[in-house]
Amino acid sequence: MEADAGAAVLSYAVAAIADEAAGPGELTALLAALCDVLAFASEALILELPSPDALAKRLPALVVAGGGGEADGDVPLLAARAIAEAVEGAPPHWASRLAGNGAVEALRDRLLAVECIDLAEECLRALDAISLERQDDCLRLGVAAAVLQYFDFFSVSKQKVALRIVSNIFNDYDEEYAATAMEAVPALCNLLQSADKTVLGSALSFLAMVAAGSSKNVEHMGKLCESNVIEATMSLMTSGGWKSLSDGTLTDILGLLKSVASVSAKAVKSLFELDVCELLREMISYYSCSNDANDKVKILVELMYQLMPPLKTSDQHAELVIAKKNVIMEQRTYINQLASVATLIVQVAKSAALSSICYNCVIVIGNIVELSTDSFLMELQKTVNLSRLNVHAMTPSTENPDSCKQLSELSRRLLSDKLPVTSTFEFVESGSIKYLADYLSNGACFNANMRNGQDLLGQLNEVRNRLQKFTCLALAESNEISVKPIGVLVEKLLDALHMYYDSFPVMLSDEQSARESMVIPLRFSETEERTSLELKFQRSYREKVLERYNGALSVDLFSTPEDIEPILWPHVCKRNDQEPASKNQETEANQSRRFVESENGDGNKSLRLTFSYNGTTLPPSATFFESILCLMNKGHSDLSIDSSFWDEEHKVTYSRSKTTDEISPRCSYNTQLSHLHENLEQSWLKDPFFSTILLGKLPGDLDESNPSYSILFMLKVLEGLNRLSYQLLMDDQICKFAEGTLQDIRDLDVAFHPIPRHQFMSNLLTKKLELQMQDNLFEDGLIPSWCVYLVETCPFLLPFDTRWKYFCLTAHQSFFKKQTNSSSEQVNSTADQVNSNADQVKSPPQTIRYRVTRGTILEDASSLMINHCPSSRIVEVEFAGEVGTGRGPTFEFYTTVSHELQRAELGMWRGENGEAGYIHAPFGLFPRPWSSSSTSSQGVDFSNMVKKFKLLGHLVARAVLDGRILDIPLSKAFYKIMLEQAVIEFQALVERKKFLETSTIQTSNPATDLSYKNVTLDDLCLYFTLPGNPEYELVPGGSEKKLTLDNLEEYVSSLVDATVKSGIATQIEAFKSGINEVFALKTLKMFTEEEMERILCGEQDAWASKNLEEHIEFEHGYDTSSPSIISFLEILREFGREEQRAFIQFTTGAPQLPLGGLASLDPKLTVVRKQCDGNIDDELPSVNTCRHFIKLPPYSSKEIMRKKLKYALVEGLGSFHLS
């Protein structure tokens, strides 16, 4: 009924409005009724309006003249409103009909007349609706300039409508309307003065659109320059103003300047007059230090390129080239401006993550060289090798720099030089890297014939001797400079590695996002769909034995041929009738499509199938995704992935593998490595670096023909040599003592000064990996193999923050494989245990909450980890009888369990009994050795103690996974050096004894030569028991066996075995198994001992007192100038280390701050004014540990505040009653 009534009203109103005899009053009533019905009418009803053509002609006429041919205020307003209602109700139909009858012109003219602000706003509304459908009409008729004419008179909401209209009109407009678009430029330039960032950003965006649409018309671009657009935009960026602009606004400005400079010599001159090069130098310096600003660096370099005439150009641009060159050559100051950024551009190119940036930098330098004077080139030569360069001949075409496949010889020479004597290019071409690798490895490097188990021990001593000599030279300091030779060599190798950046291609999909704060991503739910690749498997044309496979597989991005073969093989191999397919195989065979999860194992598989794509065999261990993408974009340095890649069904051919008796390189390497480790006694010789140099091969499956292989090999060797320089030099000292060159055993110690770790880091590879990790598909598997290889084999090339970010984004891979591989029975069993626990608390799906009791904290922790350790959900804890829940109590739980595991009564650690029954280990906790024949000691059961180590492994893994903090000081590498000091001295005596026994040289006093610090071994009264633990016998009957010179070697071997081998093997294995039950322990090997302590135990330095207020927020009655806050900050600065720990635990639940310190707390530490009912000075501070809130009363004095705060820190620990 309502629809019929509306239709009747519309029919009557339309007919009456079309009657030109109607008076103003009648028209007003009719138009009002028409607007009311149109506002609620359906699209179908609007499309069925009677006499639509008549109405379409009448409404624009009424907007212009009103009723009866005479102007009337209400009639034009209501006519404009009716136009808006009709177009909004049925956009394509009525927008076209009204535009064809002059509606756009009528609305434009009424808008420019500004007789009534209400009428103008209705005209805006109508034009907004029409501009969505009729952009060209609006642009041709000058609507953009019209809506901006009186922009400042509109309300804020209507200003947004005006901006939206201009956006609709200018979006991808046709060049034929460029002249009309230029009419809006003066008004847009005026908007650049606006304090409203939205208006400013929109104006810049529109100017960029105008420039893009007029880019091929020199005349129009000249007019754009004459409108002062360059001066207006440059004024926004000078004096550091560019730092306050949003990313989008800044990008629009740079794009606009690039567009005008590309076609106008006038624009180039204006930019030089405004000292644009100094601004570019400042901005490039700033953004080149960031890992997520590649787009900014790229457009800045492109803008600089447009300031200069290109070296090669077509005839149609010859006039512009001459004009630009004249501008620059007429003013030498312009050349000096360009020269001032030359060195910076070289540095940017050497560390650019994208090859397109690198290439553009080379072109810019080439242009600068072409325009520069001889004196400038002489200065530039000091930092950049420009000798023997023919710029005109060697510079590639710049018509499409993004499609450049590889850098020219010009770029390789230009970007690789660092030292004035020998360029990196010459260093690489000379073969020096391979010669050095060959020397240090005693010929094993690049010589497969020498890589077999029987030859390894034969060359051990020679390799060690060469490394020791090289270490002495490499770490020596010159008298003139403090730079060590190894530092110079590492720098040169990094420069050489950067020459081959094509070996590290970045793969980017359509979407990227900056990842600033980094924690383990929220785990995938079971139903969440992950990005997959569609593979259509086809039998090879020549393959006759295998069956055809008619289905397709949807595989995850991690899947490799090794993963797919077990799925495909049952369907393609021919079986005998007596060999029926299993039930699982039959089920799989009936499925035309199947989602495949990758399974990466350490085992080496002998594949029965060979896979190929477009005739190229795919490597078994590389993912299908990467292999196919690289083959599709063969020759490109960096790879962009468009949406069509995911929609396409990629055809992969399979055939039988050729049988071979050869052992795979990785298998051969692992076999040799295992054989080597079995025959090495000193643990430092088992370091991956020593295995690398001894075998002459990098771990993993990197192709030795890869140009970066030898460079990575040498960098790994030098990093290990630098890190283990103490052990190498000490081993050399022992040899000297054994041979008598060093007389006093007290002179064994060595002074070693390795270069800092950061000198091994590659800025280029760091930026490439950071850029790759910004891709939204990185977590799904968009990880090039070079990323995995570098992180696993050469992690020292990347800073800790980058490796931690990589770990956070990839840790879930091994974690979720365990989830998908667990059986449904195990899942159901776990669920039953959870449901039967009466202490469980209901929680959201992504979180598991568990209630524990402080009195039985270790037992509850074990139960929690057994039930929930492998769970994909985040584990949170609350304490029975206490009010706190969430983050704070969970941190408190990890801290408390950490402390309880340090109790001396557990028998887990070496050390002395300290205060309150905790172990005292000043150099960090180290497992207490247990004899294999002992099942209990001092009332401690060995099996229970081992369970505690497994619990510790669980805690460590869950702490890493959930972002928790442990307060347990595990020993680091330096502690091992201190532990082995006495053993080293005894080992020196052993070596000297062997030397004297085999030497023909007669010693005058053998007893003195083989004494320990002038004391004979007999007089030391040592027995074959573990120092500090006489119950532990190193050998059967050890407590009765005295140490002598004859059994010294046996003592040293037994002591080392008890301390770091068999005596702690069971404990260490239990600890490792606890971690491996959550995620693969090997994923943590990218971190050093110090870094692992930071990850597990947080930052050791609580806060820097000078910038304390920068990382604390003050709200609800407090600010930085409040007297109470001034006192509070002074108290915090006066705190000692233990008071800082107590304060952090009181406010966060953990005594250490997370990675990044106080600045990284999320949410931020916040101090608010506490509302007090009684005497303020009687109140205590309270906290909310989950939100990091401190509720601080406004005490009457600083001393009272200090007293109350310290009392709260003491009483608040161990409970959550002060919340």
TrEMBL record:
It catalyses: S-ubiquitinyl-[E2 ubiquitin-conjugating enzyme]-L-cysteine + [acceptor protein]-L-lysine = [E2 ubiquitin-conjugating enzyme]-L-cysteine + N(6)-ubiquitinyl-[acceptor protein]-L-lysine. Belongs to the UPL family. K-HECT subfamily. Residues 581-593 have a biased composition (Polar residues). The gene is gb25066. It comes from Eleusine coracana subsp. coracana. Keywords: Transferase, Ubl conjugation pathway. Its EC number is 2.3.2.26. This is HECT-type E3 ubiquitin transferase. Residues 578-601 are annotated as: Disordered. Coiled coil: none annotated. InterPro entries: ARM-like, ARM-type_fold, HECT_dom, Hect_E3_ubiquitin_ligase, HECTD1/TRIP12-like, TPR_TRIP12_N. It comes from the Eukaryota. GO terms for biological process: proteasome-mediated ubiquitin-dependent protein catabolic process; protein polyubiquitination. The active site is at residue 1186. It holds the Pfam family TPR_TRIP12_N.
